Amino acid sequence: MFTMAAAFILGFMHSFVADLNFERLHIFLFNLCSGGTILLYFTEEEKEMTIKTSIFFFLSFLYALSAFFEFYIIAMLIALFLAFIVESVRIKKFSCSILIFFRKTLTVAQKFHNASLLCLSIALLISVFAIFNDEFLKIFFLRKFQLDTFFLGFSFPVSLITFSLIFSSLFSGGALWYKIAKMLSFWIINIGVIVFFIFIIMESPILELVISFILFLSVMIVLALYWTMAVPVQQKSFLTSGIFFLLMAAVTGVIYIMLYISLAKDHPLLATVLKVHSFVSLYGWNLTGLCAICRYNDFPLRLNFKLILIMHWVVVLFFAPLGYYMWFFAFLSTVIYIFLLKQIFFSPAQT
Predict the structure, then answer these.
(1) Other C-beta atoms lying within 10 Å of the C-beta of residue 77
(2) pLDDT tens figures, 316-327
(3) Residue 160: how many CA atoms within 13 Å on its side-chain side?
(4) Rounded CA gap, 280 and 46, in Å?
(5) Are residues 334 and 8 in contact, defined by beta-carbon separation less than 8 angstroms?
(6) DSSP H stretches of helix in the chain
(7) What is the pLDDT of residue 150?
(8) What is the C-alpha separation between 2 and 244, in angstroms, rounded?
(9) Could you give the angle at the alpha carbon of 255 between the alpha carbons of 254 and 259, nearest 5°?
């Protein structure tokens, strides 16, 4: 809760400290420190954090701080060790071979889980190469191939583990079309995000737009499957809200790309749409999945989910984006956000 709250607050720090760019620290704290640690904790299936996960949590903080203060050699060394930790957890849980993704014995939820861990370790390794190239090697001169782009690389693992949670809630078995739909969703989403990331680095907005539409349709299929085939439990409404956040993130992403193509690159509307997209992705979709994982074994909770969901949407869609420009809304959204975290993390389970 402290890490997630700190990440949220740092997203507004540009209004108070103008000569430092807190964007990198803000996103790394949420996606890597919080998201990566929760992913390992969920994978190891222990009641308490293991030593390995605790070390990852501590080192991810050092990585975020090193990247923020531009201590790049330290950041590269830490990233290599973090990738080693992630892979050790992944191999113990699944397998070293990527051929496991083609095995029928693995459920779609397990494949998403494995892909999430693999994506995290690959993102860490690529970030090392990006730093080394940008600061020392200077062979590739792609404008987007730099560390600041890798908040996306650390966001994908959080998205994939949330998809794992969603697909684990679906009824097993079913007709052939149902099995095919689940499998196609896995491959389209995973290949789609990889291709999308490549197109971002290549700076090909038209191709980004095409992939965005494909991913939007695939998320619509996931929503339809979850709406009709999920086990009716308390967290269903919570995760359904998360999928709608993801759809909203897809819509704002498409709008941003279309505006990027048609408007001047310094047009203020671009920054506004991108900021809404960022808040919806991080503190809407990703936060929903991480909170659901943290309380995975505690549901049902003694919690008014309708009120929580309404407050969540109001903060993410309105107060937080406005807070990026006006300190009053920054303060208001922070107070409500911390209240939401407290309610979700510490509400007791129903007996």
Answers:
(1) 16
(2) 999 999 999 999
(3) 30
(4) 30
(5) yes
(6) 2-10, 23-28, 37-44, 51-68, 72-93, 108-132, 151-168, 176-202, 205-229, 235-262, 268-280, 287-294, 305-314, 320-323, 327-346
(7) 61
(8) 26
(9) 120
Q: How many domains does the chain have?
A: 1
Residue environment code for 286-315, b if the CB has 16+ CB neighbours within 10 A, otherwise e? bbbbbbbbbbeeeeebebebeebbebbbeb
Look at residue 137 and tell me if it is in a domain: yes
Q: Are 300 and 233 in contact (CB under 8 A)?
A: yes
Q: Is 230 helix (H, G, I), strand (E, B) or coil?
A: strand
317 DSSP 8-state letter: I
List pLDDT tens digits, range 186-212: 999 999 988 988 888 888 889 999 999
Classify residue 294: in a domain, yes or no: no
Tokens of 237: 């409404």
Tell whether 41 is covered by a domain.
yes
Is 84 part of a structural domain of the chain? yes
Alpha-carbon Rg for the chain, nearest whole angstrom, is 20
What phi, psi does 203 have (nearest 5°)? Answer: 55, 60
Can you tell me the distance from the alpha carbon of 181 to that of 222, in angstroms, rounded to the nearest whole number? 9
- Quote the domain boundaries for residue 36: 1-162
CA 115 to chain centre: 13
Mean pLDDT score across all residues of the chain:
91
* Nearest by Cα to 124 from 96, 98, 156, 154: 154
- This prediction has a pTM of 0.94
Residue 267 C-alpha from the chain's centroid: 27
